[in-house]
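Lecture 7 notes: from sequence to structure.
We start with the chain below.
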Amino acid sequence: MFLEILFSIFLGIFFGTITGLIPGIHPNTVFALMIAATLASQSVSINPLSMIVFIISFSVTNT
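Predicted structure tokens for the same chain:
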């Protein structure tokens, strides 16, 4: 559980940095793709807490 949250933090920091540096990639695009991928792959269970941690770290890094 702890490693999953830590991985979500680092992944959010990475994607927040990428979307902050590359013009044209908006955070809403990443969130839409993430939610669509989660809903499309019902066999993979993603912890909602990990998704929340990813979104928060992504948003803080992007600003």
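Points to note: The two ends are 27 Å apart (CA to CA). DSSP finds three helices and no strands in the chain.
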